[in-house]
Design a protein that fits this description.
456 residues; D-Maltodextrin-Binding Protein, domain 2; 12% strand; disordered N terminus; disordered C terminus; SBP; Alpha-glucoside transport system substrate-binding protein; Bact_solute-bd_prot1
Length: 456
């Protein structure tokens, strides 16, 4: 789930996603292939001094984004004109289909990129970026999310890290519990120790999000799918190359249920569903915490009490949600981000894309907080505190990065039946029953695309 819950493209995006060819490592593509007719000898048109950009973020994020461009605009002489649209996924489709595409789109989910690539609307990044150099500095696996028929059509300009476990630093360290669990089994031991030592419920979990209640639960299932079964099975699942009710998916549901028991979570099942996700950890910051652990993305810092936000390094600690001891042999990271894609192939757009997708972009945004670079070579001194540096390092050190799966699935699943199934499951429904229901409602168009595009 993207951190602002931007919604998805229509199910037709899965036609593109189904044709996606996922590989274990990124290779320099055949520039004669792919959609759009862009060959190695195609030269960019002359720019007009202006680059138009459409994205989903506004407010303070837009201000930080624009601040990160000021020096580059002055040096390059190119004027970047950014427009924010919270209904980005709908607006970009309308504008592209009407011949009014921006020069660059900042996609909060990869599905839209793949759909546009299938239509030949996006310039492949190998046309104007040093492909291998870019891949060498990015978090492992990031570029795979925008791969269509062997070519990559977008590159990240922002990263979200979701596999973060938060705790109230002073109280947790006073308890003496491990801050570096090496496996899910060790995390279970910590859970038991907290309960035994304090009498409190160890976990702070809240899902309530109005009509979107349930999205937090989808993140939990995705975390367990990655850890129990690894990135290849995860990819097969989100692109529907295996059915949603596959036994391995059921196992992920059941693994979450073993952690999120009434004894382990503040308020039990009722509390999970009725506690706003933004308030889940608030009870952990009391002098005598009612709960201690929360798994949530890096954007959680924006929901902490003001006094906590003012001094994150002293108030909170974090560790990565650990791997399964008998599952995937490595540390996966679940996350997201904004993918920059070029609709126009001119000299100004090329120069802007080179900067936007480089490790030189984002210093001012990082300093403002709430933004992470997808580059391992980004100057981490730009981050405002150690917490942000640690979260970036989690992704850099991970063995594989994977996008939030519900943001890739067709809308009918990812932001509808999957959400509703999580609420039903939290209310006591059987894992097999809820996964059967999702599978039964998977749109036919997605099924057909997955079957024809599996290609492996």
């Amino acid at each position: 789930m993207a951190n602002s819950r931007w919604r998805r493209v229509t199910a037709s995006a899965i036609v593109a996603a189904g044709a996606l060819t996922l590989t274990g490592c990124l290779q320099n593509p055949d520039q004669s292939g792919g959609a759009g007719g862009f060959g190695a000898d195609t030269e960019p048109a002359e720019g007009d001094g202006v680059v138009t950009v459409l994205g989903a973020f506004g407010g303070q994020e837009m201000e930080a984004f624009e601040a990160s461009l000021t020096a580059w605009e002055e040096e390059s002489g190119i004027d970047v004109q950014y427009v924010s649209d919270q209904d980005f996924t709908t607006t970009i489709l309308l504008r592209v289909n009407s011949g009014d595409a921006p020069d660059v789109g900042l996609f909060p989910q990869p599905g839209g990129v793949l759909q546009m690539a299938a239509q030949g609307q996006i310039v492949p990044i190998d046309q104007f970026l040093d492909y291998e150099s870019l891949d060498s500095t990015l978090v492992n696996g990031f570029l795979d999310s925008a791969r269509y028929q062997g070519r990559v059509y977008a590159a990240p300009m922002r990263m979200a890290v979701k596999s973060v476990v938060w705790y109230p630093k002073a109280a947790y360290e006073e308890g003496g519990w491990s801050t570096e669990p090496a496996s899910l089994a060790e995390l279970d031991e910590i859970t038991e120790q907290i309960a035994a030592d304090t009498g409190a419920t160890p976990w702070c979990i809240g899902w309530e999000s109005a009509q979107a209640t349930g999205w937090v639960g989808t993140d939990w299932i995705e975390e367990y799918m990655l850890r129990l079964h690894g990135p290849d099975v995860y990819d097969d699942w989100i692109y529907h190359r295996i059915p949603f009710n596959d036994e391995r998916v059921v196992q992920a549901f059941e693994a979450y249920a073993e952690l999120a028991t009434d004894d382990n979570v503040l308020g039990g099942s009722t509390g999970i569903l009725n506690t706003p996700f933004a308030e889940a950890m608030t009870p952990a910051f009391q002098d005598d915490p009612d709960c201690y652990l929360m798994r949530q993305g890096n954007f959680a810092t924006g929901f902490f009490p003001a006094e906590v936000q003012e001094n994150l390094d002293e108030e909170v600690g974090i560790f990565v949600f650990p791997p399964a001891e008998d599952g995937y042999d490595g540390q996966p990271i679940l996350g997201g981000g904004d993918l920059a894609a070029a609709f126009r192939y001119d000299t100004d757009t090329v120069e802007f894309m080179k900067f936007l997708t480089s490790d030189q972009f984002g210093a001012e945004w990082a300093q403002a907080g709430g933004w992470l670079s997808p580059h391992s070579t980004f100057d981490e001194s730009n981050y405002p505190d150690d917490i942000h540096r640690q979260m970036a390092q989690m992704a850099i050190e991970a063995d594989v990065f994977r996008y939030d799966g519900s943001d890739v699935m067709p809308k009918e699943v990812g932001s509808d039946s999957f959400w509703r199934a999580m609420v039903d499951f939290q209310n006591g429904a059987d894992a097999q029953a809820v996964t059967d229901a999702i599978e039964a409602g998977w749109p036919d168009e997605g099924d057909a695309a997955a079957e024809t595009g599996s290609g492996r």
